[in-house]
Amino acid sequence: MRALCFAAAAALAQLAGAADLVHYRAERAVAGEIRLWGSPEDSALVALWDEGFRKFHPQARLATRLNGPESTLASIYTGVADIAFVARELRQPVDSMAFQWTKLYAPTTIEVANAGVRAPQLAANLAIFVNPANPIAGLTLAQLDGIFGAEHKRSAANLRRWGDLGLREIEWAARPIHVLAPRVTSIAALFFRRTVLDNSFKWNESLQELDDEEAALAEVARDPSAIAYARAGAAHGGVKMLPIAAATGSAFVALDEKSAADRSYPLSRVVIVAVDHAPGKPLDPRVHEFLRYVLSAEGQADVARDGAYVPLLPHDVRAQRKRLD
User: Fold this and answer.
1) What is the DSSP track for 158-220?
2) pLDDT at residue 261 above 80?
3) pTM of the prediction?
4) Which tens digits make up the pLDDT trace of 71-101?
5) Which among 106, 110, 209, 282 is least buried, having the fewest CB atoms inside 10 angstroms?
6) Which contacts (CB < 8 Å, 24+ apart) does range 287-291 have?
7) Structural domains in the chain?
8) pLDDT tens column, 123-177
9) How far apart are CA 32 and CA 61, in angstroms?
10) In angstroms, how far is CA 305 from the centroid of its own chain?
């Protein structure tokens, strides 16, 4: 599976115009440790970045502590790290609150990749799954809001039966929708709530929370009335992954490496690092130089080689490089 991810990401890098990415050129020589905290699941990518960066700066190296995501952001406001490889989105305001209390300004986040499609990382892209017997062809964000939510900032009303979604066949019109999801306090749910429910805290009153996404998809495979969201990489032959449309009348977009990279998939996610960049002051030169490497043709080739995430497209790289200044 990892080989397949690498092949797909490498092919994407070529198709997306990787030649348009800026090749890394050192602005200044750096030496010594650059302290990075993150998660063990990102160790392979971090090692590739370390190896690639040291080709240009032989006297520099990454000093990594990969304890997991919950302690990562704290490393930069307590001064024990220079870069927090958070990967998944920051939980607002919980994640950044302690940083802001300590520093009196917010952490600076930099996108370093797009979320993956098949990898098991916490920041993997999410997909919507139904039973293969379900004739539904795709769903809009508003329809997902109507299914999973109760306040409906996007949709007009509750959507609680498959007939509410346009399925008129006798065996489907009155069939209730059985909604399965991760715990509403999980990272996946926080992203889904922000993106689909438009930050509403009011979930479907009948939503069944499951800690195990494999159990959720097993239930979808068993129950033709069920729907669930989970990491795309959890997919198997017993479930159907639906394409998603951003709005009524928009094209349905299936999740793949291309739609993850160009972010046309409405549930696409990004992978971030966070740094302590005080307003009006330059970023630490070592950190600045290392992140310039990450946001270069060489650094994004490392992302493709690792295969867990999808490389950034050139216009996204340029936008993130501006955030370093």
Assistant:
1) ---BGGGGT--SHHHHTPBPEEEES-TTSHHHHHHHHHTSTT---B-TTPEE-S-HHHHHHHH
2) yes
3) 0.91
4) 899 999 999 999 999 998 888 777 888 899 9
5) 282
6) 287/34, 287/82, 287/83, 288/27, 288/324, 289/26, 289/27, 289/28, 289/30, 289/57, 290/30, 290/34, 290/49, 290/53, 290/60, 290/62, 290/83, 291/83, 291/110, 291/112, 291/324
7) 2-119+269-322 (3.40.190.10), 126-254 (3.40.190.10)
8) 899 999 999 999 999 999 999 999 999 999 999 899 999 999 999 999 999 999 9
9) 6
10) 18
The model's pLDDT over 32-47, given as tens digits with 9 standing for 90+, comes to: 999 999 999 999 999 9
Strand partners, 270: 114
Query: Of how many residues is the chain composed?
Result: 325
| Alpha helix stretches (DSSP H) within 32-113 | 43-56, 74-77, 94-103
Helix intervals (H) in the chain: 2-15, 43-56, 74-77, 94-103, 141-148, 170-173, 187-195, 213-222, 257-261, 285-294, 297-306, 314-322
- Residue 10's φ and ψ, nearest 5 degrees, are -65, -40
